Amino acid sequence: MILDPLRDELASLEAEGLKRRRRIIDSPCTPECVVDGKTVVAFCSNDYLGLANAPELIAAAREAAVHWGVGSGASHLVSGHLRPHETAEQALAAYVGFPAVLTFSTGYMANLAVTPALAGRGDAIFADKLNHASLIDAAQLSRAEHVRYPHNDVAALAALLEKSPAKQKLILTDAVFSMDGDLAPLPELVALAERHDAWLVVDDAHGFGVLGEHGRGTLAHFGIKASSRLVLMGTLGKAAGVAGAFVAADPVVIDWLVNKARSYIFTTAASPVIAATLSESVNLLVAGDARRTHLFQRIAQLRDGLAGTRWQLCDSPTAIQPIIVGDNHEALALAEALFERGLWVPAIRPPTVPKGTARLRVTLSAAHSEAQVAQLVDALKILQ
Questions:
Q1: pLDDT at position 83, please?
Q2: If phi over 0 gives left and psi between -120 and 50 gives alpha, with beta otherwise, what is residue 222?
Q3: Structural domains of the chain, with CATH
Q4: Which of 171, 222, 326, 358 is most exposed, with minimal Cβ within 10 Å?
Q5: Helix, strand or coil, per DSSP, at residue 282
């Protein structure tokens, strides 16, 4: 039977504690939500500033739907590039301090656009071993040599760049690593890119809106300015609270992507409702210092509350606070025990993380209250 190999593999995943399933949510994206019929406090959303259900964004979406309708009708290069798309790109460019921006429907599509457009056969991509799956796929799609260096190991990367004979080199990294929450050494990577005349492509999905002055991202956190060799990707469904992604770069790079990036050229443009709502989201991000202050207070509360317990937190200064458990089944059991207590913290297992490092990935939001974080800390202390 044609389905038998699939059934066998699914059974193996189940036995190894690696099978995944979806939960059904019957409420908006807020910390308190209804999941599989049970009211819980969610610590798994990437809605870092609590904007996904913000009244200002809901109002902007309503107004845009009435004025622009809900569909764009075509790709950006045919008839789908409406005024709200252009306005959103200009607002995002001004916010992150780059001369030009191109928006995409998802972060995955943005990453699949950039790397294959800048590197190909005969070139070399130097990628952090803990890069997001979309960056890995982008490197493989490019057909360039894909060289992976140990996580955040600048010396190893420098040695690899030095001995590479590639005609064009590209350094590829997350800014905030999605499963560990730590930061890439971006100043050192900028210096290496300059020394070796390489591109530096940075995925700031989890730093955008959170880190740096007014939340402008991890580059701003390190005081790094835009340059001709620097390409920044940021997602808009996390801290921005909406959907989609953007690529910020020199105008020549943006023009190149418009003409060469297949995941931009051959797809229908995002809804104008999304684009118009993003413009309002940028206003909230600029004015969001109080939200960011509250978020970092909750991060400190969690870390201080779990100090001295058996739960090993990664060395993360960000909203991503993973608790390393190790065994897949133990991580699942801990997640289920928390869910029974009204706390939703999913277990993350291989291949998303390395074998033997299954974890609970706690993500905090400015929408979380002090009492909700205390509830999580108390439950974890009981379960240790």
A1: 98
A2: alpha
A3: 19-49+289-383 (3.90.1150.10), 55-286 (3.40.640.10)
A4: 326
A5: helix
- Tell the burial category of 124 from Cβ atoms under 10 Å away from its Cβ (0-12, 13-18, 19+): buried
CA distances from 383 to 1, 154, 340, 357, 376 (A): 44, 38, 12, 19, 11
- Distances in Å between the alpha carbon of 98 and those of 186, 225, 232? 17, 8, 9
Cis status of the peptide bond prior to 351, with omega within 30 of 0: yes
| Strand pairing class (358-363; 347-348) | antiparallel
Helix (H) or strand (E) holding 45: none
Beta strands in the chain (DSSP E): 32-35, 38-42, 100-104, 124-128, 145-149, 169-174, 199-203, 230-235, 245-249, 312-313, 320-326, 343-344, 347-348, 358-363
Give the model confidence (pLDDT) of 19-45 as tens digits: 998 999 999 999 999 999 999 999 999
Task: Decide if pLDDT at 227 tops 90.
Answer: yes
Q: Is the pLDDT at 1 greater than 90, yes or no?
A: no
Question: Is pLDDT of 62 > 90?
Answer: yes
Report pLDDT digits (tens) over 187-207: 999 999 999 999 999 999 999
- Kindly calculate the radius of gyration of the chain based on its CA atoms and give it in whole angstroms: 21
User: Which residues does residue 174 pair with via DSSP β-bridges, in sequence order?
Assistant: 203
Cβ 275 vs Cβ 82: under 8 Å: yes
* pLDDT confidence tier of residue 312, bands split at 50, 70 and 90: confident
How many helices (H) and strands (E) would you count in the chain?
A: 14, 14
C-alpha span between 17 and 14 (Å, rounded): 5
> pLDDT of 122-141, one tens digit each?
999 999 999 999 999 999 99
- The pTM is what? 0.95
| 70, two tokens | 């809900």
Q: Kindly report the average pLDDT of the chain as a whole number.
A: 96
pLDDT surpassing 90 at residue 384:
no
Catalytic positions: 178, 206, 238
Q: Are the CB atoms for 279 and 84 separated by under 8 Å?
A: yes
Tokens of 109: 């599509």
